[in-house]
Amino acid sequence: MEQYHRNKKIIFLFLLPALLVYIIFECIPVLQSFYFSFFEWPGIQGVPLAYVGLDNFKALINDAQFHRAIANILLFVLIGILTQLPIGFFFAILLYYTKHGQKFFKAVYFIPMILPVTATGLLWQFILKPNETGVLNNLLSKLGLENLCTGWLVNSKTAMMCIILVTTWASAAYYIVIGLAAMNSIPDEILESATIDGANTWKRVIHIMVPMIWESIKISVVMIITGVLKVFDMVFVMTEGGPNGLTHVPATLLYSQAFKYNHYGIGSAISTIMFMISLVITIVSLKIMNKEDKKSATKERGGRKVWRQV
Amino acid sequence: MKRKIIAVLLTACLSIGLLAGCGNNASETDDSQVKSEPSATTETADTSAAKEPEVTITVLTRYAGSDVQAQWLQTMMEKFSELHPNVTFQDDSVADEAAYNNKLKTAIATGNLPNMWMQYGAASLVEYAKNGLAMDLSSLLEDTEFTLGLADPTLSSYNLSNYGVDGIYALPFAMQPEVIFYNKDLFAQAGIDKVPETMEDLIAAFDKLNAAGITPMGMGAKDTWRLGHFYNCIVYKKAGVENIKKIGSREAKWTDENIVETLEILKSFKDRGAFEENFEGIDWSTENANFLSGKYAMICVPLWFIPTAEASEIADSLDFFQIPYFEDAIEYKDNSAVYTDAHVYNGKLEGYEKEITLEWAKFTHSAYSEEVRLKVCNQLPGRSDINTDGYEMSPLMEKALVLNNELTTYGGDVFEYDEITSMQDVIRNSLVGMMLGTSPEDTARSIQAEIDNNQ
Amino acid sequence: METSLNRKAKRKKRICQILLYAILSVFAVICLYPVFFTLNSSLKDNTDIFAAPFSLPGTPQWENYVRAWTIGKMGVYFKNSIVLTTATLFVSALIGSLASYILAKFKFKGKGFVYLLFIAGMMVPIQTVIIPLAVTFGKLGIVNNFPVLVLLYSAFCLSMTVFIVTGYMKGLPDELEEAAVMDGADPVIIFFRIILPLSMPSLVSASIFNFVSAWNNLLFPLVFISKDSMKTISIGLLSFFGAYTSDYGAVMAAIGVSIIPPIIMYILLQEKMEKGLTAGAVKG
Lengths: 310, 455, 284
What we know:
Structural class of chain C: mainly alpha
Order of helices and strands of chain B: HEHEHEHHEHHEHHHHEHEEHHHEHH
CATH class of the largest domain in chain C: Mainly Alpha
Structural class of chain B: alpha/beta
Oligomer: heterotrimer
Distance between the termini of chain C: 55 Å
Largest sheet of chain C: none
Shape of chain C: flat
Distance between the termini of chain B: 67 Å
Strand content of chain C: under 5%
């Protein structure tokens, strides 16, 4: 048996196909992408790459559109966490205490998640159309809120926010399911003991549930961050980064630079910078939460003790 | 058995759909095509055709689907195959701009060039010419019979000498002057009795229309070319075509006072209520539909709009007028925005394939070809020597022909003179950005910055 | 005294219950209404869509679907998406589970590194590789090539597959293989007869996750497919939307065509889909 599990031939043959595909189509291109950020290529076959040193990065540092894209993606991350997570876990808690129809509501909430992003983007784009053609505006004026009507995806105050909130609409269900799964894994006795102690629901949630599902909250935050930093489809479908670069995120800017303007080098530089940023943010957020984890762990222990004594 | 039933059902669905689809837009062009059929071609059939090798000519254009010239391309390919039975066509055309650009980009990047493709402006053409991707068409100039009838007999539209490239690498096709189509009923309703001749008149018309509660001008600026086109008209009438060309050759700048002034004018139109609210979020097809249902008094659009206007329910109320001029810039009164598609041919071709591709180029720019465009597609012909005997032109087309003959100084889209590929988007996006609040000075600065960053 | 307290508590409880269901229902409407609106509009004509956006269609305009299916070519795009996605799922499940088996059960130098290499892929956004791939494919003239696209899609499915399946396989007891190894059975047979069937639940989870990402993928087909006849549903929908913006009924029908299958699939496989889609979040 031991011998079988050390058989080099099997190891090699079974691992090879996956490794080959993975290295050729993912690993090598990732490395190439770093390499390309120091070159320029006009997108014409036969024209060699031209080495330009750090020029691509310098150009980006001075580029207002790139600044805007970075600002947008950071806002996206922030609002993404502040909406997806609370909505997700709030409804997870509600569903946890729902005796009848839990399955039904969960299924309904999950539907926005399974729609193709292209379809989601297009249908919301339609709803958010400006003037009386837009369904949202139409609804608002029917409710007598004409002054709230606007060109949702045109107005500089609302455009980015709309894309972010549509993304929340499409992905909050993820965190409902994760949260619910985490709560269902809490042993019943713990909650029961609290009930007998006379703790009301709200206290129970705060003092017992949150620490018990802290692990999944943590994972959710990291997932939102990494997910949002990758975002391309929703923005591309809804606005393509427009009007006038107002809603660009790095991925859509990269697409424009490389595939519209033939600035393949600048596009690669964007992807390199984004890769670094997402690496740093992910590591830092994991670190921060681990620290908080330790803190809250001690607090929670103390808290529970006090509780028991009462 | 099951599979068969599904197959039958699918075919049924497909054919129903096709029939339904055809019924929509093709019916009107169909009978006019019949009329043009007997008009004989002047081309002589190639007698040696049988000996020629088999070739496939690949064509990549946007003349497909709902494009008005789709029928023209089909007819030309059919007729050319009749003249040269050894030639077959592969038509990769697609109407959608993004899809088209993607196809062309892929072709250029992979070196799988079509025999013929189309594009706008000089930007990429310079790169293509320098790298041998585009065919030098100078030899066509020797055929004076061919060139003399052309609207642009010296083929100077795509002269690249400013960019250090000799030769001619593109044929201009389909001259389309930009005009303002207007709704006569709405003008009357607002008490406008005279078509605006100067920009001052136009502004006065805006005010009257607004007072009558009518949106003066449609502007689907979500499709940024809409605002770009309107700006072309303003800048040419106010600052002249030459000055825009100078920016392309780096003798002038976007931040120059005379250019900033044109941006200010465009912005002042918005402030004056020329367009509806939030027009920045409205797309061209909505604008088009709204104009044709009488919601706007005017739209600024090239003459390819004629067949659409004539086919609409309010055709009788529609007419067009020339872009008004500025009284304080009377010297540029004759400067106009006129668009052409550049037809480009594969520069890597050799031998017979090159020969036959050149033949195709000539054929598609011949008097016969322009006749087909006029009669089948109701499009303004690009040659003066076409046979219009017995063909009754529509009033709008008649007017368009007169206008076309009067053209003296014209330019295409402002970005066409710039070698930087991104200028198209940068300029158009910046114009939209200006409408959304950026100042004209900052708009000029951000456009100029793109040039400076690319030096 | 006691009874009134009891009644109060009961009433309070009932109010809480009503409130709970009210909140749940409002959120349900928010989640469902846009979808309902799309399907509703897809059966109306252009005037109705704008004149009466909230009412039900008078006479259902099924022609909208016919137009979306034929002129909009949603049928073709649909077939392409199915071919591409199915092939991707098959390839990634096969090579992914083979590799997972090795990573879960076998011992060799550098195993940790190989595993990490695969897992790190979850961090890599697609747009990172798109430019180098476009350049390389351009040089090699690879475009509109389904087999290559399948391998490309599969590469991006491998991280998740390896992550989920390896974790699951680690939990399978060694004894299962033991008897077969003693009998001198072929490793391939051991894998396909013993390991693979037992790992099916994890493979299903991974495949559902991969299905959604492959079905939705926009960037790869956007850059690597230029032929209309080879477009997938995501870019097909986008180009139809671009070309026929003002035929709102047909556009809505096209969106409908693209959202109905996932909804049906979800209704059929609810639990499995939830598990698969959130698999990445639950430590495997």
